[in-house]
Design brief:
Elements: H1 3-15, H2 37-54, H3 70-79, H4 84-92, H5 104-119, H6 128-133, H7 136-141, H8 149-160, H9 165-173, H10 180-196, H11 198-227, H12 235-242, H13 245-254, H14 259-265, H15 294-306
Organism: Catellatospora coxensis
InterPro entries: fvmX1 (IPR045480)
Domain FtsH ternary system: 20-262
Amino acid sequence: MNASATAHRILDWAIDPVGAPPTGPLLDVAALAEPSLHLLAALGMLAQASAARSHAGAPPLGDGGPVGLGTVLIAAAAGGRMQRGVAERILGAVPPMRAVPSDWAEAVVRHGLCGTLLRAAGWPGGADDQLVAASPLTAVLHRPVTGQGTAVLPAVSALLRRPRGDSVLVAALCEPSADAAVLIWRSAVLEHLRGEHLELLLDVYTTARLRHGELWDARIAWAAKNLRRAGLPDDTALATLRYWAPLARVHRDQRPQTLAGRIVAGTLRAADPIPRPRPDRSTDQITGRVYLRPADYMTVLRLVERYGLLPVEDLL
């Protein structure tokens, strides 16, 4: 078994990621430059699976261009991680991509591998920043290289200009996570959306409740229980609540427009018409989102306020 076979095993695993990523030797590394037809077929299957899983469509994000061998090199390095020195040299040979990609098809397949590795239960870590550095879409949809979040925000805007880019971003941002760094990055992206794409921000939270409501409820309950304990607060517990802070700010800003908010503020006059929410998926008003019910989000919004997370923070 050589480096090509190791890369093939990782690609096969990433197509249907069950269990921990496999490992293998890194013999005959030079053969990676001339991959076999079987290895290229596996790369093509991963490209299709990555586009489907990420909701990127076909062609992925509107890019029908070719996919290079960078993903094969990443796969070999990931599978040969037990040979750390050789694996790092292979990662170093991966052709770099710009932070704002021009070859989006390549970006999708690299994220299909790197993002899957980083979320895998059996992934040992240690090379996370190197994987993110090789995959600009992973920097957007998972989290950036440590300390480089500000540099990645233009890629968020570029993604939204691509066909189906909004669907890709919503599908990634709505997922629960137990990784504090991932949650902090997502809250920073959501705060960015609050300023420029408010409708999309509400799409994210609506989808989070519809697709992952039970998981989010469990994570929020865990965070609340953890933060009630004596001692220093847990970073992941705080990050879980910070994820919901942009929605809390929208709720605060829009509340004077609701019936309850106007009663509290004393601005509702007897002759005023009673405002009625207009159910509309594209609306930028919380009250117009029929699938985003107050019962689904008010508990966590109160926790956000209780723990002083409502003011805008510089998370990057």
